[in-house]
Design a protein that fits this description.
Blueprint lengths: L16 H49 L10 E5 L5 E5 L6 E9 L5 E4 L12 E7 L2 E7 L5 H11 L5 E8 L2 E8 L8 E7 L2 H8 L1 E5 L4 E5 L2 E5 L3 E6 L2 E5 L3 E9 L1 H26 L1 E2 L4 E2 L6 H23 L4 H4 L1 E3 L9 E3 L1 H10 L1 H8 L5 H10 L7 H65 L1
Antiparallel strand pairs: 1-15, 2-14, 3-11, 3-15, 4-8, 4-10, 5-6, 5-9, 7-8, 11-12, 13-14, 16-17, 18-19
Helix pairs in contact: 1-4, 1-9, 1-10, 4-5, 4-7, 5-9
Subcellular location: Secreted; Bacterial flagellum
Pfam families: Flagellin_IN (PF07196), FliD_C (PF07195), FliD_N (PF02465)
Protein name: Flagellar hook-associated protein 2
């Protein structure tokens, strides 16, 4: 706000020039300020309401997108008769059915351990060792005076990232060298060989004994034997992953996951109802307090609500024509006395329909011309970078920005008006001061004349 103070009152008139100028400027400014406040508040009120409705439409879009994929209703549930033998998970591509699985043997990682102890203080003469990891041979140099810990470190340095790990096991008798494969399977076996050096190094290698053989996992699935280098099988049955735990038998049953499919539809129902509710809140009118909402009577909101309801009505009709009516599928709008256009899902009916005819439900909801994509096209028309709600919000934001620009111009205009008032009052004060001076002079002259008579 401009400063119109003089630092003193009217010298000639005694008037509060600063206060008078501020009051006059405030009176001149009030109509424009009130108009700008109304425009700004109305725009921000609508922006907030549009944001709430847009958020609800975004949630509806997310729920619909989850149903558009060709495999959206193909989730699988898996049950194993013996969890101690194996655990199983299934993907959407896993064929449903029962699989008789027998774990004949688990995959193991090769492990060697010396059977002769080595004292902590013992050192070895210079030499070379050879470590075999599968088809790869690694050379290990042993410097003169190396301890068992030094030999371990040399092996690990040569075998870093190559699939072998050396370690030392300390026992009452002394230290024992251990050599282990990082991976399970027969193709990942390891071994330690003497290449050159003294008898002490040769004796160390000779003392190494195989404690765990390198073996592949062997599994029988419905009588067909499968081998694998590790204990997780992912390619025996499409989409079926088996984690082997112990030898034994287990029956794995793969079936359609009705609960997952029901959640897809229930999430849509919830999001659709929330979108309608958001529009209802944004357009509601409080008759008791005579207070409209931000978008009461708004044509765009009426259009969006009407389009959603109309499209849903058509789609429910299409489902009924495919034999998936409310009695069969359990999906319908609320009836009397709460017929507000919102959806309800009878989960028991849906579960029964999904268990009986999943292919028909999948075909009805998914695909380019399915239920989900058709309604999704309508929703996309309102949100996103080019959606109707987005464009309108951008327009309202420009209004708010324009109000700020107009306020800046108003400030400049009012400052000029204030300065003009200030100049006028200063001139008036000067005139009054002159008039007071003249009046005082005339009074003195008249008094002087009267004294001479």
């Amino acid at each position: 706000m401009a400063d119109y103070s003089l630092g003193y009152g009217g010298i000639g008139s005694g008037l509060d020039i600063t206060g008078m100028v501020e009051q006059l400027v405030a009176a001149d400014r009030a109509p424009a300020d009130n108009r700008l406040n109304r425009v700004e508040n109305a725009a921000k009120f609508k922006i907030s309401a549009l944001g709430t409705v847009s958020s609800a439409f975004n949630n509806l879009q997310t729920a619909l997108k989850a149903m558009t994929g060709a495999d959206a209703f193909d989730a699988r549930s898996v049950k194993s008769s013996t969890d101690t033998t194996l655990t199983a998970t299934a993907g959407k591509s896993t064929p449903t059915g029962t699989y008789n699985i027998e774990v004949l043997s688990l995959a193991t990682a090769n492990k060697w351990l010396a059977d002769s102890p080595v004292a902590t203080s013992q050192t070895f003469a210079a030499g070379k060792l050879s470590v075999q990891v599968g088809d790869t041979t690694l050379d290990v140099d042993v410097p003169a005076g190396a301890t068992l810990a030094d030999i371990r470190s040399a092996i690990n340095q040569a075998g870093a990232g190559k699939g072998v790990q050396a370690s030392i096991v300390s026992a009452n008798e002394g230290q024992f060298l251990s050599l282990s494969a990082d991976k399970t399977g027969a193709d990942n076996s390891v071994s330690l060989a003497f290449a050159e050096g003294g008898s002490d190094l040769q004796d160390l290698v000779a003392s190494m004994q195989e404690r765990v053989q390198a073996k592949d996992a062997r599994v029988s699935i419905d009588g067909l034997e499968i081998t694998a280098s590790n204990n997780t099988l992912t390619d025996a049955v499409p989409g079926l992953s088996l984690v082997l735990k112990s030898e034994g038998s287990s029956t794995v049953t793969v079936s359609g996951d009705v609960a997952a499919s029901r959640k897809l539809v229930q999430d849509f129902v919830t999001a659709y109802n929330a979108a309608l509710a958001a529009i209802g809140t944004a357009t509601a009118y409080d008759a008791e307090n005579d207070a409209p909402s931000a978008l009461t009577g708004d044509a765009q909101m009426r259009g969006a609500s009407g389009q959603l309801r109309g499209m849903l009505g058509n789609l429910l009709g299409d489902l009924a024509a495919q034999g998936l009516d409310a009695k069969t599928l359990g999906l319908q709008t609320k009836g009397y006395p709460s017929s507000d256009g919102s959806l309800v899902l009878d989960t028991a009916k849906f579960d029964a329909a999904m268990a009986k005819d999943p292919d028909r439900i999948r075909a009805a909801f998914t695909g380019d011309s399915g239920f989900a994509n058709t309604l999704l096209d309508t929703v996309k028309g309102y949100i996103g970078t080019d959606g109707a709600f987005t464009r309108r919000t951008a327009t309202l934001n420009l209004q708010v920005k324009d109000v700020a620009t107009q306020r800046t111009a108003l400030d400049a205009r009012m400052e000029a008006v204030g300065n003009r008032y200030k100049a006028q009052f200063v001139a008036l004060d000067s005139m009054i001061s002159q008039m007071n001076s003249t009046s005082s002079y005339l009074s003195q002259q008249l008094a002087s004349l009267a004294a001479q008579i």
